[in-house]
Amino acid sequence: MNRTFKGTSMLSRAHHFAVAALTSTVLSFPALAVQIEVVATGLAHPWAVAFVGEGQMLVTERAGRLRLVDANGSISGPLTGLPAIAAQRQGGLLDVVTDRDFARNRTIYFCYSRPDPTQAGFNSTALAAARLSDDAKALENVRDLFVQSPSYRGGFHFGCRIVQGPDGKLWMGLGDRYQLMQEAQNTANEIGKVVRINQDGSIPADNPFAGKSGASAAVWSYGHRNIQGATLDSEGRLWMTEHGPQGGDELNLIQPGLNYGWPVITYGENYGGGQIGDGITEAPGMQQPAVHWTPSIAPSGLAFVDSDRYGQAWKGNLMLGSLKFGNLVRVALEGDRVVDQEVLLPELRQRVRDVRLGPDGFLYILTDSPNGQLIRLKP
Ligand SMILES: [Ca+2]
Question: How many domains does the chain have?
């Protein structure tokens, strides 16, 4: 099934988005036409896709299932071996990535809403590692590497995006659990944080708060609301998207030890209106987003295009999905600055949950519905 859409300049859309740090740069390249190729259908609320070689992909379904999709789109039964998962509301089986050395060790990392075994009804986001069995039907040697603290009785804002650095260390973007938003400013816990861990679950000694009294050594950055997308660019910079409240969605360049402001500063407001806190958008010692979107687009999965598949038009750009508008947003970078953005696939109108760049250099998209699709974008 192929349909061709042309990208539509953000500036020509009826709804305008606030863009921080936007220069007067105009699109340097004509809009690129891409075809939508549906690779697989019938995925129930898929959340993340990871590539395991020979055209095969692992896809998580939020309800707590992990499936293998092969190159011709057939979907396996659920893999066995997953831990207990608190699949309710926004919680469930969420992100999955392969280890940089997957071809040799068959290691994957995934994150999920973990029931607290010591407190009934409480849960938190956990990052686990496992080995994909040789027949790809099971997970082996499943172990939690990191469990967000404290756990909480709730079903919202689990965050849960994983990125592995070139050195093998793992970042995970977390959420503020909604009702615990004030804790995003408290570096003593892992609510509303980005954390960084070693592949064995130990904490790197060079983390910004390691060895500091009263702080969680796992914390990499803080003041986040609900991180939903994460990627590295070709220079090794870490970018993440997060949901604001009503408005104030953000793309951030994540740097160690920095405060990204939530809930002290935000471009959003409370649901239904009304300011959050003092209603301020900037403050000393708090980072401004690279881009913010008001009204909200509900950004999701984030990918960096370092392949040549889409020519120079998209190379070096970030791509993120919009759950709310059911399209893609291309964010053009110059170094660590955002210089432009463009809405792509405005006719798609399916909630976009994940965006990834495959090892074949093509972009892959997961749509969030009871009959979700895995889509490949072909120029
Ligand atoms: Ca912020």
Answer: 1
Mean pLDDT of 268-285: 95
Dist. CA 303–CA 93, nearest whole Å? 20
pLDDT tens for 58-94 read: 999 999 999 999 999 999 999 999 999 999 999 999 9
Q: Identify the CATH number of the domain in which residue 122 sits.
A: 2.120.10.30
- Given the residues 15, 16, 45, 157, select the one marked as catalytic: 157
Residue pLDDT, tens place only, 135-176: 999 999 999 999 999 999 999 999 999 999 999 999 999 999
Domain that holds residue 90: 2-378
> Residue 156 Cα, ligand 1 centroid: separation in angstroms?
18
Q: How many residues does the chain have?
A: 379
42 Cα to the center of ligand 1, angstroms: 36
Query: Which residues contact residue 167 at a Cβ distance below 8 angstroms, ignoring those fewer than 6 apart?
Result: none
CA distance linking residue 211 with residue 4, whole number of Å: 54
- 157 a catalytic residue: yes
Residue 25 pLDDT more than 90?
no
Q: Which of 50, 80, 53 has the alpha carbon at shortest distance from 65? A: 80
Contact predicate 351/345, CB 8 Å: no
